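Morning!

This is the sequence you dropped in the shared folder:
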Amino acid sequence: MRVLLVGSGGREHALAACLSRSPELEALYIAPGNPGMAPLGTLLPIAADDVAALVAFAKEQRIDLVVPGPEAPLVAGLTDLCIEAGIACAGPSQAASALEGSKSFTKDVADAAGIPTARWERFEEPEAALAFVRRRGAPIVIKADGLAAGKGVIVAQSLEEAESAIIDILTDRSFGEAGASIVIEECLVGEEVSLFAFCSDNDAVLIGAARDHKRIGEGDTGPNTGGMGAISPPPQFDRNAQEKALDIMVRPMLAEMVRRGTPFRGIIFAGLMLTEDGPKLIEYNVRFGDPEAQALLIRLDSDLLPVLKALAEGRLDNAAIRFTDEASISIVLAASGYPGTPTKGSAIRGIDRAEAVPGVSVFQAGTALNENVLVASGGRVLTVCAKAETAEQARARAYEGVAAIEWTDGIFRRDIGL
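The structure's back. Tokens below.
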């Protein structure tokens, strides 16, 4: 099978590692990829959101399956263009991708499907939004309605912080068009978990679950990021609880999407809060999470490629998805200054030493080559992952891997998994 993988992050590096092991793989192309993915396939100078160029390449090279990693090409209509060209794509349509592309759309769907979620309102004008938060008080959550690379959510602990977030997004347009409108919702309290499933029309097959660590600072302090680490499986959310959550949080959504004429086929990532009143929906994403995917996929014990091909064809096969019983962890190394303006250009060494630690894999994201020296070129730069029989062993191995890497500008949390 000839495959085009779209994306350049740690999630896509983990996907490439899985796909490259498939006996059904004939050729793997990666657009645009990163230096760490070069040994696994052919890198292409095509941006992940240049959907027209991606489909043109797929047609020229007789690609059998397109595997989207990030959300942007899906929201831009990659699957729709692939279908028009007669190419299988393991992702949802542009209309169904609105589950991630618009937070207010997700809230409308959840309300219509009877899915428990936080109370919310949508605003386009700052004056109305400011009046609302002054009535409601804090803590309260402010979200850019559109795609903001995982950074468009502010959990305001004070009224002043909420007001500042509203002005920042709606007036100063810190997230551009993604912040043309905002969703303001009640602040849910509990443990946050990420639930993943393969979905097709009315049904879903469980992939697994993880717990992300969103904030930049230890002890869950500081601004939200795209994710600084993850553990899998999360404590107090076992396989039985995950299956129950599918019935409450995912299958009713799928039925509602079918009712609306926009059936969902692809990977759903449901962000949940385990509250005292039971699980509640935070958001949907229409792809694997990052860094959750890295923690999940290092435990994959089956061939991912035929599963994704079946998914693109609207078929689900529960027997084809197998994970080991090990615990896993992913730790993100980001560039100094992230999630603001990251420092770029500093050399990174020691990845080979890190991967010499038993059970450790290192996935690259914001990296580049400068005269054959690996350097930082983005915000989240590396994900160091480990698996072991216990969560404690996995955590120890991962941090041993982190310690083996030489990078002066790298920052990371030391409390992932605690």
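Headline: The chain is about 30% helix and 30% strand.

More detail when I'm at my desk.
O.
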